User: Which sequence fits this backbone?
């Protein structure tokens, strides 16, 4: 009978409050980097093992663009910095890379645009604080580039408050209602302040344009009686995919096996026609990322993306998932995302890597946080905090996390002070990267 009892919310809340003894909510407010902190550039270089050497210069050139760009590519550095810090012990499935640029619009299978977490390459179960801290820090980093410290502090506090208040609201709701909650794109502009509404509306318009037909039109060209990928090296090139091409039919069949039955029958009517390597993002540069053009019996075309999955940057410090890397990414997305890509699956090894598959440009778009002023950034950070809380509540204990965070703004203030201190460190690390690129210590492409 005990196994049939509903969870005791009061007991969860009491356990959450008890976690404050283990990790006081204000504990990170006075954080300073340790004197024996490992060289962040050596940490980055160690994480480059297995990446494609010809793309490393591009990776570092992109990271050198700004402190926020550095932060985006340095998940492994932050994981090493967070690992020694005391945490509550309250766990959830983590995004693992929850910075501002990894939130955006995505389409449900029914075609409804929602605002959600949109990157899961580093996903792993771990302390909920790690995701929250990375998000709040990213807000502070962006704000410090253009705003006074006090405005950056307010934006960081708003982000932490968004997470805390959303988690408290979810803890008070029906379990099934909390699970199905999502933020629809049409509601985002009204949620944000006046300064950010235009950016939100533009991102929605971009997401609508980034559909299946747009991917085919932009990335492919006529070739004989069909189409093939356009050559735009090094960002899009067919020759670097030569090692994958002989295995493409086998990989596609294995990918189909990972899909739900109805999707397997649907995509089983397609066959791969062409493959190319496509460089994406900042943190992903150097990993093996490909696009596959698939065609069907009625001349329909679909562009699928294959991304190499590696061990999560968090696995050095946390227990591994027990899953293959690509399956870990897929399982994490299905657990955290309000809506998952209907064509999300995995296939690999064959001696060339482990890949997860998804539809390319399935109506996706992001709001460029760097273009927002302090007020807009505070509203946007608050929204992202709320969305992250919803994602964590699916696999964590919302009552315990909400009770740990509390009803006051004490945690928000401490998280903001930590974020400002860490943002200074990011600026310093970025400057070191720029110097290393200039002196040849790290590879970089010449400015174009």
Assistant:
């Amino acid at each position: 009978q005990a196994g049939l009892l509903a969870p005791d919310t009061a007991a969860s809340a009491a356990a959450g409050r008890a976690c404050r003894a283990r990790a006081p909510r204000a504990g990170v407010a006075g954080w300073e980097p340790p004197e024996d902190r490992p060289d962040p550039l050596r940490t980055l270089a160690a994480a480059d093992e297995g990446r494609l050497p010809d793309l490393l210069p591009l990776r570092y050139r992109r990271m050198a663009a700004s402190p926020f760009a550095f932060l985006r590519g340095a998940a492994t550095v932050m994981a090493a910095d967070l690992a020694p810090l005391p945490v509550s012990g309250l766990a959830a499935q983590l995004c693992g890379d929850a910075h501002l640029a990894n939130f955006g619009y995505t389409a449900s299978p029914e075609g409804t645009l929602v605002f959600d977490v949109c990157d899961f390459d580093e996903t792993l179960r771990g302390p909920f604080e790690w995701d929250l801290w990375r998000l709040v820090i990213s807000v502070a980093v962006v704000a410090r580039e253009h705003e006074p410290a006090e405005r950056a502090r307010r934006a960081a506090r708003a982000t932490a408050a968004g997470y805390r208040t959303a988690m408290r609201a979810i803890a008070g709701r029906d379990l099934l209602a909390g699970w199905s909650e999502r933020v629809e794109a049409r509601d985002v502009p009204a949620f944000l302040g006046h300064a950010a509404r235009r950016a939100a509306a533009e991102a929605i318009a971009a997401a609508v344009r980034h559909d299946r037909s747009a991917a085919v039109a932009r990335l492919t060209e006529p070739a004989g009686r069909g189409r093939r990928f356009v050559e735009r090296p090094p960002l899009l090139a067919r020759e670097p995919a030569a090692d994958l091409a002989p295995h493409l039919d086998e990989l596609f069949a294995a990918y189909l096996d990972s899909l739900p039955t109805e999707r397997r029958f649907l995509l089983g009517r397609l066959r791969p026609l062409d493959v190319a390597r496509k460089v994406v993002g900042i943190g992903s540069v150097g990993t093996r990322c490909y696009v596959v053009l698939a065609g069907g019996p009625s001349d329909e075309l679909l562009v699928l993306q294959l991304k190499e999955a590696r061990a999560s940057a968090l696995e050095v410090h946390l227990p591994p998932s027990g899953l293959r890397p690509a399956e870990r990414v897929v399982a994490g997305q299905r657990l955290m995302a309000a809506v998952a890509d209907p064509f999300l699956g995995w296939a690999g090894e064959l001696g060339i890597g482990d890949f997860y598959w998804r539809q390319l440009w399935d109506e996706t778009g992001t709001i460029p946080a760097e273009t927002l002023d302090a007020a807009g950034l505070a509203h946007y950070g608050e929204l992202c905090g709320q969305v992250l809380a919803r994602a964590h509540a699916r696999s964590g204990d919302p009552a315990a996390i909400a009770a740990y965070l509390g009803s006051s703004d004490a945690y928000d203030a401490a998280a903001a002070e930590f974020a400002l201190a860490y943002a200074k460190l990011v600026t310093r690390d970025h400057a070191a990267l720029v110097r290393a690129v200039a002196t040849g210590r790290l590879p970089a492409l010449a400015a174009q």
